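WARN no homologs supplied; continuing
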Amino acid sequence: MTIQSKSTLAALSMVLMAGTAHAGGLDRTTYSPNILFEQGKVYIEGSLARVNPDVDGDLSFPGNPGLLIPAVSGIDDMSPNYGLVSGGIKLDISDRIAVAFQTFEAVGADIDYGAPPNFYTNLFADLTGRAYVGTAKISLTDNISVFGGIKHMVVSGEATSLYGAGESWDFDPAHGTGYIAGIAYEKKEIALRVSLTYESSIDIDLGTSRVGGATLVPNPAPPPALVPFFFPPVSGTTTATIPEAWELYFQTGIAPGTLLFGSVRHTSWSKANIVLLNDPSFDSNNVTDFSDSLTWNLGVGKQLTDRLSMSVSGTYEAGSGDPSTLQPVDGKFTLGVGAKYKLTENIELSGGISHTWLGDNETDVNTPGLPEGVFEDNHAWAFGTKIALRF
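OK structure emitted
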């Protein structure tokens, strides 16, 4: 049984995609050039995945050990389930040139702390960013190829209670464009491929409006007291940056019908903060404080029969140690399994499941005396399926 590069990669793709649950920054699905190397003059794929996080926390009251607090039940299920939809097509223009078009949800955030007795009144955020990618690959020799193209992003979202009780935020859909460039080396007789991919940063300006909401502020007149302050409606532009990233990927046959594969990806999330309304007069408008992420993946695939192949992979991402209210988990370790079955000469069906252990973290209210959330021993399940057609 001779190994083919396509024998396991099709089965792996959904596991790897679903394994990005709660990755560094706001990553959901990361770009891969592997579609450019798929066999067949025409290759089409469509994928569905479901990610089910279980993120719960407890309350702590720093600096107020003797403060009497009504009964609270902690923070339950603050990370809602979400789905991922991806698709792509590759066309061989000639023996040396191939082009591909892909779409996937590249970034996102789903956060819902819920109503009292949680320590936030109703903090909620939903951010989505879909990527549309067009790339081309040129084979310079039988072993060396270069690839690159355009990555276009469409981002939108909404939120409530970012700064007080009940204010509502709306982020209009906005667009941004960057580029992708890479180089690859192949030795097809042993299914060896090594590729290095660079993705540029993408700047996006979102039209933003905020209505309603209130908070407590000190009363300027004696006696000292806290009085309600009602936010006036405001509109402007929120700036966001999808950060640049580098990824080194490899695969190689290590025995007949057996493939070893892995990757390391660095994403510069420390340079990609979201700034609400982009107005210096608006206090505390920078709502993110990410650190760079470094994600490692290693796995093995095995062709069991002429029609069936399976794979096992692990993904590790170290935590930064920084508290975060918008993403109160820090680092991850994922184990995934996948399978691909060849229904006909032209149709392949893949499926995968992964389990992610999420690193401990806490929120960052950054106001003395207010309670903080502490999140420990959380996890996420992900399930995915893909259909691929070759002609």
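The domain at 6-390 is CATH 2.40.160.60 (Porin).
OK
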